[in-house]
Write a structure and sequence with these properties.
single chain, mainly beta, Immunoglobulin-like, Maltoporin, Chain A, 3 domains, 22-stranded antiparallel beta barrel, four-stranded antiparallel sheet
């Protein structure tokens, strides 16, 4: 009957339900008054009193569960009198402590439940450590993350170097040249050549691009930056001995247009930048788009007024666009796009003259363009694969010369191709993953003055496999291995790794990891930069028969993510140890008739590095958050290096760190204060301005920065609408800077150890539509 008359069937079922309800209620309320049911109501909120909708509130003894409404309220009816336990939990918040409640007959009991947010880790999804998605707090490999708010609002950073300065423990950005301002980044004390920079997990930076990449990469397209310290060669191949820095590209979630403009003065010299970024969620063909542009320029700075610049003249333009589209009911995702960059920088003396009419000039005119494509496809709930590729072409004209040299002009061409294929399958508690990665780079570089003529092709093929085994709910073990074959090595290099994460409870995590890696004797970024030392060029070349470096790294960490005095609190300690074999060091070669200083990169027996990091992140008040980190380390060669006989790593302080305070004031006024501390270190100082080569002991220094911003929202006044944000920044408030810079045409331009910036004042505005 129900099949032939569905409407009649519905009415019949409804009538039976209506008839049954009074019977049930009459039976429930029978009995003496002390046994009659009561009710429980309440509200779930965060520490600031804001309601939490969608929170699950349960009474375990009665197997009952309710979800809160948008105002955070819930209601349980017809509860038997007596004692019960109430627990609440919600995504992004820690589970509440069990609350004991007594239900009284025919009474309504009310309670308030407060949940502490996990906003320090922000439920951030990270991928770099294992190439698989994890919540940051649950990731088997310890991963540090900078969010877009950290980069753009707190730091007001316009490039990667600014974003990484004084933000992550164990990451140190340094300036290495007075003339051209070349910048490097160290992870736990290891030089920048040991760090792999990735874009969405793909190595898109060539040897030539890495020379000035930190200053050239804008932050407009970046959603977040993930940093994994310690060996990562098992997943990412050569150059990842020290770790990886992965730039995660932003994907549109809504339509938006944002324009920024900034003007400032560093040590009284002008600097300006402007840019915009836009997102379009709905385009023809169901595409979404993200696009950006950034232009910047800075005047040269001669701090000691000797006629030679201490910071270069710079002009740069960078832009790009990315298109996104989903297929197969969302199971397939296509991403492709392109970017372009041009930059001019020049330092030395008489910057208005031709380079060969000056005592010293370091000049680089760079143009780089590239494209990328990625396809992700979930074949089922257990299996997915991805295919990715990128290509870029860099061309630059250079002059690295001293003493009016007409032959110090150079030209470089540098095409790069990178491809990656990956497949993963969930087999019960095992996530099995394998992949193939290929990279081909050609370096054509010619500088007549230094008899340098490169025309080399470097190819590397890597095969990797990983098993991520979830042993128990809070225990994950990762084991993997990668094999690499470089065209300049006659053998395969195997790089195994292992990691384990143990969740002691929902607040404490222990992680351990061991990884191996290698660094092939390719052309390094410092080979392609010729510094001026003592009125001569300072040239670095690989020695014949240079062998690859090999490394073993071990890490262990203990992290706490919870609440202190009811407010979010995170603290951790990380121990690290690394051993390098056949380590690359520099040995000077003095050849007859040579009018420049040549240093050969040769193999030394090895070196080791060990240390500890401390992290702290605490919201001490609903308007004040504190963050800080410190690194203590020891880095030594096993035998003295050839030039100075030193056992200590150069430019590697034994202690360094940072601290910051983020303060939210009424009327959407924010203050951000941070400080960077660097301990003493030894720095090579070559002859020219001084009579003979020697090692210097640098002093400790601290750099304080202050930023203030105010946000205005005309119209509706709600987030997500039109917005105007104005800000002011005073970087290096005390103008802490190196006091013993070399002077004149015979200076050692590499003798730089102080902060990246002199005192800088900036004013800017951001408009969002």
């Amino acid at each position: 009957m129900l099949r032939s008359h569905p409407i009649a069937g519905i009415f019949l079922i409804s009538a039976l339900a209506v008839h049954a309800a009074p019977q049930q209620n009459r039976h429930r309320h029978q009995g003496p008054p002390w046994s009659r049911p009561g009710a429980l109501t309440g509200r779930v909120a965060d520490p600031l009193g804001s309601p939490i909708g969608g929170a699950a509130v349960s009474i375990p003894e009665l197997s009952l569960e309710k979800f809160t409404a948008a105002d955070g309220r819930f209601l349980f009816e017809d509860l038997p009198p007596g004692g019960v336990t109430v627990i609440a939990e919600a995504p992004g918040y820690y589970r509440s402590r069990p609350a004991a409640v007594t239900i009284s007959p025919e009474a309504l009991v009310s309670i308030e439940i407060q949940l502490a947010p996990k906003e320090i880790v922000n439920e951030t999804v990270v991928v770099t450590g294992t190439r698989t998605e994890h919540l940051q707090v649950d990731a088997p490999v310890r991963t540090d993350v900078l969010t877009q708010r950290d980069i753009c609002e707190r730091k007001v950073a316009v490039n990667l170097a600014e974003a990484l300065t004084a933000t992550i423990t164990g990451v140190r950005v340094e300036n290495n040249c007075q003339n051209c301002g070349v910048t490097g980044v160290r992870l736990n004390g290891l030089e920048s050549k040991y760090t792999q920079i990735l874009e969405d997990g793909l190595p898109t930076m060539s040897s030539v691009a890495m020379v000035y990449a930190l200053d050239q990469i804008p932050t407009e397209f970046v959603e977040s930056i993930e940093v994994v310290k310690g060996g990562a060669s098992a997943l990412y191949g050569p150059n990842a001995i020290g770790g990886v820095i992965n730039l995660i590209r932003r994907e549109p979630r809504s339509g938006a247009l944002l324009a920024t403009s900034e003007t400032g003065w560093q040590y009284g010299r002008p600097a300006q930048s402007a840019g915009f970024m836009g997102q379009a969620e709905k385009l023809p063909g169901s595409f979404a788009a993200d696009f950006y542009f950034r232009g910047a320029r800075a005047a040269p700075i001669d701090r000691d007024r000797d006629g030679f610049s201490d910071r270069p003249k710079r002009k740069s333009l960078a832009g790009g666009a990315t298109l996104f589209r989903r297929f197969l009911d969302g199971r397939g995702r296509l991403v492709f796009g392109g970017n372009t960059l041009s930059e001019f920088r020049r330092g030395g003396d008489h910057l208005d003259l031709r380079p060969d009419r000056t005592w010293i000039t370091e000049m680089v005119d760079t143009a780089r363009s590239g494209g990328f494509v990625r396809w992700n496809h979930s074949l089922s709930g257990d299996t997915y694969y991805s295919l990715a590729g990128s290509t870029s072409f860099l061309e630059r004209d250079t002059y690295y010369g001293t003493g009016f040299d007409p032959n110090a002009y150079g030209h470089t061409r540098n095409p790069l191709l990178a491809m990656d294929a990956q497949i993963a399958h969930q087999a019960g508690p095992h996530m099995l993953m394998g992949g193939l990665q290929f990279q081909r780079e050609r370096v054509e570089d010619s500088v007549l003055a230094y008899r340098r003529h490169f025309n080399n092709v470097f190819r590397n093929t890597g095969l990797y496999f990983q098993d991520e085994y979830r042993l128990r709910q809070h225990v994950t073990v990762v084991a993997g291995v990668r094999g690499d074959k470089s065209n300049i090595l006659n053998h395969w290099v195997l790089s195994p790794r292992g990691n384990v994460r143990i969740g002691l409870n929902d607040k404490w995590n222990v992680r351990f990891g061991v990884a191996t890696g290698f660094r092939a004797p390719t052309i390094f970024d410092e080979d392609l930069h010729v510094a001026a030392v003592g009125g001569e060029g300072f040239v670095i070349q690989n020695a014949p028969n240079l062998k690859e470096e090999k490394s073993v790294t071990a890490t262990g960490s203990l992290d706490y993510v919870g609440a202190l005095r009811g407010l979010p609190f995170q603290a951790g300690v990380n121990f690290f140890w690394a051993r390098l074999n056949d380590v690359h060091v520099l040995r000077e070669e003095d050849l007859p008739g040579q009018d420049f200083r040549r240093f050969l990169r040769v193999n030394a027996p090895g070196s080791y590095l060990r240390g500890a990091e401390l992290d702290l992140n605490w919201r001490v008040h609903r308007r004040v958050s504190l963050r800080g980190g410190a690194t203590f380390q020891l880095a030594r060669y096993r035998e003295p290096e050839p030039n100075f006989g030193s056992l200590r790593y150069f430019r590697t302080p034994g202690r360094y760190g940072f601290a910051s305070a983020d303060i939210s004031l009424p009327k959407e006024l924010t203050l951000y204060v941070d400080a960077e501390f660097t301990g003493p270190m030894i720095v090579p100082h070559y002859a020219g301005y001084i009579p003979a080569d020697r090692l210097e002991n640098s002093p400790s220094f601290a750099v304080w920065n202050l930023k203030a911003a105010r946000t205005f929202r005309p119209g509706s006044g709600r987030r997500g609408g039109r917005e105007l944000r104005v800000y002011g920044a005073l970087d290096n408030v005390l103008d802490t800077f190196q006091t013993d810079l070399d002077r004149g045409p015979n200076r050692d331009s590499n003798y730089v150890y102080g902060p990246r910036q002199m005192r800088t004042f900036r004013l800017g505005a951001t408009v969002r539509f």
